[in-house]
Design goal:
Blueprint lengths: L2 E6 L2 E6 L4 H7 L4 H12 L6 E4 L12 H13 L3 E6 L3 H9 L6 E2 L13 H10 L5 E3 L5 H9 L4 E3 L2 H4 L4 H21 L20
Parallel strand pairs: 3-4, 4-5, 6-7
Antiparallel strand pairs: 1-2
Helix pairs in contact: 4-5, 6-8
């Protein structure tokens, strides 16, 4: 295998030919997230660029790397980007991303492409209540009812790909998801009834003979 000379920051560096991009970045001691930041700054003006940050921490689950995601978010916000980071359903991580200046927080319902559906309703509800920016559920949804549930809990929206693309009838499934998010948002705006643990008679008693 031959070597290739790569010039980085004006300095020539020799790396092995045929390596993958991640291997190349490792050999050059360059952070992948930093490459994305600099590349996007070159091709678009930072004052009109909205950036969805995805920094994968595990190749099997495609779950995001918490620390790297937070660092990339801080850097991009500092550079003037509008940042919408993909994250797990970790409540504290979502809060930290919000505090770092994220314009929206995008927790996954389940690992990308699994269509497992909402795995942690409580955490999603807590994230919605804790961060003061839109929450967009971004990964893992399987059926429209789950999208409706996200909106019922106060999420601003959902991102759906696999559940639609791999459905037996993708156009019909897309329509079902569209109708579900409308219904979910309408229910959220209407405000659900109080949840109680004691039965309360709801039928009117007036006019009923004793």
């Amino acid at each position: 295998m031959t070597d290739v000379t790569v010039t980085l920051n004006g300095k020539p560096r020799r790396v092995a030919d045929g390596v993958t991009l991640l291997d190349l970045l490792t050999q050059l001691d360059v952070q992948p997230s930093r490459v994305v930041i600099e590349h996007n700054r070159e091709i678009r003006r930072r004052d009109d660029f909205a950036k969805t940050v995805v920094v994968v921490g595990d190749e099997d689950t495609l779950l995001p790397d918490p620390q790297a995601t937070l660092e990339a978010t801080r850097q991009l916000v500092k550079e003037g980007f509008i940042v919408m980071p993909y994250t797990s359903d970790d409540v504290v991580q979502a809060i930290r991303l919000y505090e770092a200046g994220a314009a929206a927080v995008m927790p996954g319902a389940a690992p990308i492409g699994t269509t497992l559906g909402l795995q942690n309703l409580l955490n999603l509800e807590l994230i919605v209540s804790k961060v003061k920016v839109p929450v967009i559920v971004d990964a893992g949804l399987g059926v429209p009812s789950e999208a409706a549930r996200c909106l019922e809990l106060g999420a601003a929206g959902v991102l759906v790909n696999t559940a639609i693309a791999r459905a037996k009838n993708p156009p019909e499934m897309a329509r079902a998801f569209a109708e579900a998010v409308v219904a979910g948002r309408r229910a959220f705006n209407a405000g659900r009834a109080h949840i109680g643990v004691q039965a309360v008679a709801s039928s009117p008693a007036e006019g009923i003979p004793v």
